Amino acid sequence: MGRIGIFGGTFDPPHLGHLILASEVRFQLDLDRLLWVLTPAPPHKPDRPITPVEHRLGMVAAALADAPDFELSTVEVDRPPPHYSIDTIRILRGQFPGNELVYLMGGDSLRDLHTWHAAPALVAELDGIGVMRRPEDDVDLGELDGRLPGAAAKVQVVRAPLLEIASSDIRQRVRAGAPYRYYVHPAVYERIEAEGLYRKR
Asked: Where are the chain's structural domains?
């Protein structure tokens, strides 16, 4: 039986901050593998234009090609919306029977977890909740447990270096013609350049 981390995101584009954070998560939480779950279109960002999923799949696959501990999962891409986390976890349970599943999120998401679709069922389904915290994230675990009984006991905090890299900044840099090459994996840079991504937004 292994421990599998679930690292979800739009990855538009995936960057070095994602890779460093994923590496820290895998090490600190003693994970056997880390699934990068690409979200086709996040329901909480309905107004933001998003790069077509095939381009994002290609970039994530390129970023992970030389990382054997990381794996691209299309569990959300392969089914129609809405993409609720509880459904994703149940599908992954079927794909990886007998393994522990650790869902990764930021401190802000943990604070809002009680508002997620079928939140109590999601907490019950998970073996762990890996929380990637920033210094400004202050989550009251007692309050969390009051809203979602049993959640606090599953929380495992990941301490990772603060990197001021964001996908939105990279998209803006590409549009503006500013340097961005060293913010992303070389293979991702090559795909962005070859496919002309982020130029016309």
From this structure: 3-166
